[in-house]
């Protein structure tokens, strides 16, 4: 990595490379990179959230959900960055394919959030062009979930 690309081989360089590749929609290459160097630099929550965001930038909602489920199985907690990226991707994908399916797809994401037993409070505001904004206030503590 240092000889080929001019980056020092450390975890901060890996984070930088992951964030820039995912920012431009190269999530598949980035996930392979992270997998290949996992024995040397074990990915943290930032790297995993950035990978989810990268899949969403690329418009691959199924891959983002797959990665979020793998993260949960491996003991990581998805941050609001990951959930915001997934919800943004839901809006973009549904706007192209099925604009009336936004609410049901967003509810699937909320169910995923509830099943991971997060103890955080999230507020999402989803606006779809031509439709009424959907405001979601989610208190996920395995006891209460509100959405309107």
Automatic annotation (TrEMBL):
Taxonomic superkingdom: Eukaryota
Protein name: Uncharacterized protein
The organism of origin for this protein: Arctium lappa (Greater burdock)
């Amino acid at each position: 990595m240092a000889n080929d690309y001019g980056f020092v081989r450390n975890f901060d360089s890996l984070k930088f490379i992951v964030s820039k590749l995912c920012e431009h929609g190269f999530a598949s290459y980035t996930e392979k990179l992270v997998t290949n160097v996992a024995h040397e630099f074990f990915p943290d929550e930032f790297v995993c959230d950035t990978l989810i965001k990268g899949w969403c930038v690329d418009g691959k909602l199924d891959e983002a959900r797959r990665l979020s489920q793998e993260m949960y199985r491996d003991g990581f907690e998805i941050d609001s960055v990951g959930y915001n990226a997934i919800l943004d991707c839901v809006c973009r994908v549904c706007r192209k394919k099925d604009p009336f399916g936004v609410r049901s797809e967003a509810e699937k994401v909320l169910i995923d959030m509830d099943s991971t037993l997060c103890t955080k409070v999230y507020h999402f505001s989803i606006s779809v062009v031509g439709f009424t904004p959907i405001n979601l206030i989610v208190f996920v503590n395995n006891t209460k979930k509100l959405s309107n």
